[in-house]
Write a structure and sequence with these properties.
Number of helices: 15
Oligomer: single chain
Strand content: under 5%
Helix content: over 70%
Low-confidence stretches: none
Structural class: mainly alpha
Number of strands: 0
CATH topology of one domain: Serine Threonine Protein Phosphatase 5, Tetratricopeptide repeat
CATH architecture of one domain: Alpha Horseshoe
Radius of gyration: 19 Å
Order of helices and strands: HHHHHHHHHHHHHHH
Length: 306
């Protein structure tokens, strides 16, 4: 790494590039540090819009992972504001992609779909196949999550995975694979959801894509419980998701898995264990109380405390 204060434009890029590597590996705390250092250099460096936009985008996702969903949304707004200063449709497409991702992570499908529609329009108009595929996937999952989608949307998500793989885009293809597993679960095709989830987990581990491992583990647990079989395996998946998320400092994924495990324990008469698992984690959060994840956790805690 370059010495602090030397060649600020190169240091900006160095911090951003290291942050991206750390993010994909699931090293979210160190990724946050590097993204913030990169962004802080923006005013003093040669104005490298692309690197700063990238750092802001990935910082938003990192903040969500670390348990700061409102700060993630604020950083997302900064991406849009900075993109508005650049007369480049590709940059604009990148900015609306950030909005689609953050709202998806916050479990706000209608908002995510609005950004996806803007992404699709820009991508189709300018000929950006990468963002056309992603926009179609975000829109399709959002429709399914709102009860408005079915087989056509499933096909669109699968086509996006195939297109992204053909372009060599591993991380986006794996993200969209999580969409496919979630979509099959929403549509109650549990066998397909299980197959996609197991394959996604295998790929995430093979290529050290740490950001996706807890999500696939939690999805697999949800699928198994929805089928009302393999309860022991489902419990193990929840436990493993919590362990991996905790090791990575991924509070948002830890909370999601903890809610799933607490519900499972509660249904088996283990209300005290469920409360003791969930309460300290919920109490750690300082923001995002209007998000679905935290609302569900609060409601479950109220049930468990009766």
């Amino acid at each position: 790494m370059l010495a602090e204060g030397a060649y600020p434009e190169k240091l900006l890029l160095a911090h951003a590039n290291r942050g991206w590597s750390e993010y994909f590996l699931g090293h979210f705390t160190s990724a946050r540090t590097d993204f913030e250092k990169s962004i802080a250099l923006y005013d003093t460096a040669v104005h490298d819009h692309d690197a700063t936009l990238g750092a802001l985008h990935w910082l938003a996702l990192t903040l969500w992972a670390l348990g700061y969903p409102d700060q993630a949304l604020s950083r997302c707004a900064e991406v849009e504001a900075l993109a508005g200063k650049v007369a480049d449709p590709f940059v604009r497409c990148f900015a609306v992609h950030a909005g689609a991702v953050v709202h998806h992570l916050r479990r706000e499908p209608a908002a995510s779909a609005n950004y996806a529609d803007a992404m699709i329009a820009l991508a189709d108009d300018q000929g950006f196949p990468h963002y056309a595929a992603l926009g179609g996937a975000f829109r399709s999952l959002s429709l399914i999550q709102q009860g408005k989608g079915g087989t056509r949307e499933l096909a669109t998500i699968q086509e996006a995975i195939d297109s992204l793989r053909a372009m060599g885009s591993l991380e986006p293809a794996l993200r969209v694979k999580t969409f496919l597993a979630q979509a099959y679960l929403e549509l109650n095709d549990l066998d397909a959801a299980l197959e996609v989830g197991r394959e996604g987990l295998r790929v995430a581990r093979q290529y050290a894509q740490g950001e996706f491992e807890p999500l696939f583990l939690k999805l697999l647990a949800d699928v198994l419980l929805a089928g009302r079989d393999s309860e022991a395996e489902a419990e193990n998946f929840y436990r493993e998701a919590i362990t991996v998320a905790r090791r990575q400092g991924e509070k948002s994924r830890e909370l999601q898995a903890a809610v799933g495990l607490a519900r499972f324990w509660s249904s088996h008469g283990q209300q005290r264990e469920a409360y003791e698992l969930l309460a300290p984690l919920y109490n750690w959060f300082t923001e995002g109380f209007d998000t679905k994840d935290l609302k569900e956790a609060k409601a479950l805690l109220e049930e468990l405390s009766v």
